[in-house]
Design a protein that fits this description.
- The chain is mainly beta.
- The chain has a single domain, classed as Double Stranded RNA Binding Domain.
- The chain contains one helix and seven strands, in the order E-E-E-E-H-E-E-E.
- A four-stranded mixed beta sheet has the order 4-7-6-5. A three-stranded antiparallel beta sheet has the order 1-2-3, with no helix packed on it.
- A hairpin with a 6-residue loop joins strand 5 and strand 6.
- The protein is globular and about 35 Å long.
- The N and C termini lie far apart (27 Å).
C-alpha cells in the first residue's frame, strides 16, 4: 500500500510530492492529446473521518503524479476532491 502524508502544504505519496491538477487541466490534456491515465487510492477524509477515494493522474513526460483538486477560484479553494465511490471517468459529473 502507498504511504500518504500531508506535510505542511505538501502532499506526499511514497515520499514523493504530488502536483495538483483541476478538471480543466485534465480536459486540456485530453484536448491536446497528451496521454494520461488515472487511478484511485483510498484516504481518510480529514473532516468526517470516513474512508473516501481520491483520483491520481499520471501524465506522459511528467516525473510526478497529480492529484485531482477543485478549481482554486471556486468555493472549495482548490481542495483535493474526495469521492464516496470510484467514478469512471473521474472528471465527469463532479
Amino acid at each position: 500500500m502507498d504511504e500518504i502524508f500531508n506535510v505542511g502544504e505538501t502532499i506526499l505519496l511514497d515520499d514523493q510530492p504530488l502536483s495538483l491538477v483541476t478538471r480543466a487541466g485534465v480536459e486540456t490534456w485530453t484536448e491536446e492529446r497528451i496521454k494520461h491515465s488515472y487511478r484511485y487510492d483510498q484516504v481518510r477524509d480529514p473532516v468526517t473521518g470516513q474512508m473516501k477515494y481520491r483520483c491520481l493522474y499520471a501524465k506522459d513526460g511528467a516525473g510526478v503524479s497529480f492529484v485531482l483538486v477543485n478549481d482554486p477560484d471556486s468555493d472549495n479553494d482548490g481542495r483535493v476532491i474526495l469521492f464516496d465511490k470510484r467514478r469512471d471517468p473521474p472528471c465527469k459529473s463532479l
